[in-house]
Amino acid sequence: MRDWTALRRAFIEEGKSLTQIAREASVPYSTLTERAKRENWRGQREAFLNEDNDRRLERLTRKLIDQIDAVVSAGDGMDAKDFKAVTGALRELKELRGEKETGAGGGELTVRFVGEAEEFSR
Fold first, then answer.
1. pTM to 2 decimal places
2. Which residues have a Cβ under 8 Å from the Cβ of 32 and sit 6 or more positions away?
3. Is the same domain home to 106 and 67?
4. Does residue 89 lie in a domain region?
5. Smallest Cα–Cα separation from 17: which of 31, 39, 1, 32?
6. How far apart are the first and last CA of the chain?
């Protein structure tokens, strides 16, 4: 008996091709493709990849926000270098969010400063 769950996982999560899976599992290619089509493995793979990209984007966003927070919290005033670092990080966030939302770039990023950093939002 074939372990269809493992074969599906190999395609969706491991990124193996149907040809490769058929060869490795000694499953007729036509049988595998029929099952993959019936169960929408391609759609499931796309959803899996989108979730993975969302997690990576969220980690990067948190990292950039932490960097901004470190610069803003470092002292009473920001010099030109600090301001450039903050605006650069915000620009990167905008680009990342825009690429995710549109699939190609662009988009809009809204930033809300809170606490001590609120003075920079004016």
1. 0.50
2. 7, 18, 21, 22, 25
3. yes
4. yes
5. 32
6. 66
- 72, with CB counted inside 10 A (0-12, 13-18, 19+), is buried
Question: What's the total number of domains in the chain?
Answer: 2
User: What tokens does 7 get?
Assistant: 């074969």
Specify burial of residue 3 (Cβ count, 10 A radius: 0-12, 13-18, 19+). exposed
**78: domain range?**
53-121
% residues pLDDT > 90 (the chain): 32
What single string gives the DSSP state of each residue in 26-37? Answer: T--HHHHHHHHH
Residue 24, classed as helix, strand or coil, is helix
Q: Which two tokens stand for residue 85?
A: 């670092």
